[in-house]
DNA sequence: TTAGTTTTAATAATCGTTATTATTTATGGA
DNA sequence: TCCATAAATAATAACGATTATTAAAACTAA
């Protein structure tokens, strides 16, 4: 795990942590450009991959959409908004998921699982209500 | 839910159910082409969308990969192989996921959730073993 | 039968991401 | 310090999956 912390990586990492959101590569690209106007989008993609590989950040592959990256590397699940695709961290009890049956299903050797709660975020609920009034 | 069952839709639906697998649009396109050589890939995509919208089939959006479609519309979860991306149906107990806390997290109005067990399928485990021997 | 609607095939366009490549930047000895 | 080489970068082309466009064909209902 010899990872050279280049300027680009440092700023990418810093901006992700600073945002405290689950940003996509291009959202992060916009933020990083303010400090490094000449950085390339491919560099952002490549380094997000490298940083998540090295365990500095988490990679979120949510339901067929754009990948998002997570500033929080501790074990947790996610809620995501079906309307605006915002993602939030979640710390629900994982009990009932550590049962024997999950350890080996259908002959698979199980390495983990992904739990996504799907819903509508507060902001989108509010918007929907206001739409109704019209 | 007035859905005209065209020949194209009929055959797409039939081939998906026949396969009893979680096929992607292009895999299904290959199968359907045998009966309708002139069908267009876009037609397959469009009708898979329509059929899943109407509840005839399920749509699987697994972790950043190609969408797959499910012949089984009853409520269930999935295991998928991290190596070959094969997907299998699963009927594990959903207890511990119907708790109060899940109903409303972080102000979200919860509509559902997706649980993916990740692992290595029997075929890929076997392959890995044979690789080791060499 | 005909006018209007829906669906289709063919294909262009788009979106997110990865690959290529020439250039720049760092690194580790002589 | 200088040089060789290794790694990382910016720019951009290419890619794979999916969606949009459009003109033609197939239905449907008066």
Number of helices, counting only DSSP H or I runs of 4 residues or more of chain A: 5
Number of strands of chain A: 6
Q: Give the end-to-end Cα distance of chain A, rounded to a whole number of Å.
A: 57 Å
Q: Return the CATH class of the largest domain in chain A.
A: Mainly Alpha
Which term fits the overall shape of chain A? flat
Overall average pLDDT of chain A: 88
CATH architecture of the largest domain in chain A: Orthogonal Bundle
State the major sheet of chain A: 3 strands, antiparallel
Query: Low-confidence parts of chain A, pLDDT < 50 over ≥5 residues?
Result: none
Q: Which percent bin holds the helix content of chain A?
A: 25-40%
By oligomeric state, this entry counts as homodimer
Features:
homodimer; about 130 residues; alpha+beta; Dna Ligase, domain 1; 2 domains; 5 helices; 6 strands; DNA-binding
Describe the overall structure.
Two copies of one chain form a homodimer. Chain A is of the alpha+beta class and 134 residues long. Chain A has five helices and six strands, in the order H-E-H-H-E-E-E-E-H-E-H. In chain A, strands 1-3-2 form a three-stranded antiparallel sheet. Chain A has a three-stranded mixed sheet with strand order 5-4-6. Chain A starts with 6 loop residues before the first helix and ends with a helix. The mean pLDDT of chain A is 88. Chains A and B meet through strand 6 of A and strand 5 of B. Chain A binds a DNA duplex (30 and 30 nucleotides) through helix 3.
């Amino acid at each position: 795990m010899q990872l050279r912390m280049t300027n680009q990586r440092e700023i990418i990492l810093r901006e992700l942590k600073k945002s405290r959101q689950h940003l996509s590569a291009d959202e992060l690209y916009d933020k990083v450009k303010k400090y490094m106007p000449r950085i390339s989008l491919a560099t952002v993609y490549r380094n997000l991959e490298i940083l998540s590989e090295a365990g500095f950040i988490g990679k979120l592959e949510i339901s067929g959409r754009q990948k998002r990256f997570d500033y929080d590397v501790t074990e947790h699940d996610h809620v995501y908004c079906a309307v605006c695709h915002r993602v939030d961290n979640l710390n629900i009890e994982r009990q009932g998921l550590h049962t024997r049956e999950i350890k080996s299903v259908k002959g698979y050797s199980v390495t983990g699982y992904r739990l996504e709660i799907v819903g509508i975020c507060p902001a989108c609920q509010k918007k929907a209500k206001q739409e109704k009034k019209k």
